[in-house]
């Protein structure tokens, strides 16, 4: 129970990778704040699953694009559990299209959730972490933010931006006892990747040396490590979890 007494906020944790991270951190002993942008069956189900696993959990509906929602989510964490020790910026969306077909709103929506959302949550959580002189911030970026991808100009830009944000925050807050790292998953089996055409999936698989897609748990295990004291001397890094897809 390496995270006993710690409180973790995981944005976008109603399903997929965020859900697995919430479960992992909860199993490591953390109090867990889960989150979705709107009330959903998935959010309710994840809350019930965590409770059944013996995790101290509270579910919040907060749109990470909105500062008032973000502040309310942070307040819920503090009022319920007394602190914010770990922030996982995981909420993310795609609006995939070739650049010539991509609209301004496709661009804005993706940048607003994936990048501005992480900025707002990081700023709000950091206020608390700076006072307590400790904290772990973990940003879920993507290998696409490192190597680019056709039809994902908006998504790749948001994820590359998140890497710049990670390194800047790591430098800015290191002296306050706060670590900030990024995780770059490759192809992970979730609802986000479910919708991709079979030929796209096959193409990915052919290029993964380990010849399998990742699971949300593959990502959650590394988040668990980065959130723990064992990772105290790691900051400003981007850790790939991709079966060797990008190296
Ligand atoms: P997913 O299954 O589509 O889940 C996305 C989560 O984000 C949901 O809980 C969703 O909740 C939440 N969300 C979306 N917009 C939000 C907003 N404005 N405010 C708060 N929450 C919001 O996605 P996933 O595959 O688990 O991906 C999780 C993260 O990993 C994303 O950042 C994604 O870019 C990244 N990633 C995924 C893969 C992959 O292969 N799956 C690879 C690399 C990186 P609501 O439905 O309530 O909005």
TrEMBL record:
**Job description of the protein:** Catalyzes the NADPH-dependent reduction of beta-ketoacyl-ACP substrates to beta-hydroxyacyl-ACP products, the first reductive step in the elongation cycle of fatty acid biosynthesis.
Lineage, top-rank taxon, reads: Bacteria
GO function term, MF aspect, one: 3-oxoacyl-[acyl-carrier-protein] reductase (NADPH) activity
Q: Name one GO biological process term.
A: fatty acid biosynthetic process
Enzyme Commission number(s) from the entry:
1.1.1.100
Its subunit composition reads: Homotetramer.
This enzyme catalyses: a (3R)-hydroxyacyl-[ACP] + NADP(+) = a 3-oxoacyl-[ACP] + NADPH + H(+)
Main EC class the enzyme belongs to: oxidoreductase
Question: Which species?
Answer: Acetivibrio clariflavus (strain DSM 19732 / NBRC 101661 / EBR45)
Annotated metabolic or biological route of this protein:
Lipid metabolism; fatty acid biosynthesis
The UniProt keywords, alphabetically, are: Fatty acid biosynthesis, Fatty acid metabolism, Lipid biosynthesis, Lipid metabolism, NADP, Oxidoreductase, Steroid metabolism
Q: What is this protein called?
A: 3-oxoacyl-[acyl-carrier-protein] reductase
**Entries under InterPro entries matching the protein:** 3oxo_ACP_reduc, KR_dom, NAD(P)-bd_dom_sf, Sc_DH/Rdtase_CS, SDR, SDR_fam
Q: Which family does it belong to?
A: Belongs to the short-chain dehydrogenases/reductases (SDR) family.
Q: What residues bind NADP(+), as annotated?
A: 12-15, 90, 155-159, 188
Keyword hit for Chloroplast: no
Q: Where is the Ketoreductase domain?
A: 6-191
Residues the record marks as active site: 155
């Amino acid at each position: 129970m390496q995270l006993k007494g710690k409180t973790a906020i995981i944005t976008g944790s109603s399903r997929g990778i965020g859900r697995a991270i919430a479960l992992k951190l909860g199993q490591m002993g953390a109090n867990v704040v889960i989150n979705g942008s709107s009330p959903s069956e998935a959010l309710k189900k994840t809350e019930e699953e965590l409770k059944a696993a013996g995790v101290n959990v509270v579910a919040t509906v907060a749109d990470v694009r909105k500062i008032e929602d973000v502040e309310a989510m942070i307040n819920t964490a503090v009022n319920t559990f007394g602190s914010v020790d770990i922030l996982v910026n995981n909420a993310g969306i795609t609006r995939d299209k070739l650049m010539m077909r991509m609209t301004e709103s496709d661009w804005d929506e993706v940048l607003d959730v994936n990048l501005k959302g992480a900025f707002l949550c990081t700023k709000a959580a950091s206020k608390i972490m700076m006072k307590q002189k400790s904290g772990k911030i973990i940003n879920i970026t993507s290998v696409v933010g490192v190597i680019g991808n056709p039809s994902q100009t908006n998504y790749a830009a948001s994820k590359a931006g998140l890497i710049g944000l990670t390194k800047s925050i790591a430098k800015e807050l290191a002296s306050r006892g706060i670590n900030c790292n990024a995780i770059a998953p490759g192809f992970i089996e979730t609802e986000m990747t479910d919708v991709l055409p079979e030929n796209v999936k096959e193409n990915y698989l052919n290029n993964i040396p380990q010849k399998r897609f990742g699971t949300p748990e593959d990502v959650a295990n590394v988040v668990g490590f980065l959130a723990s004291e064992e990772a105290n001397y790691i900051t400003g890094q981007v850790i790939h979890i991709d079966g060797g897809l990008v190296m």
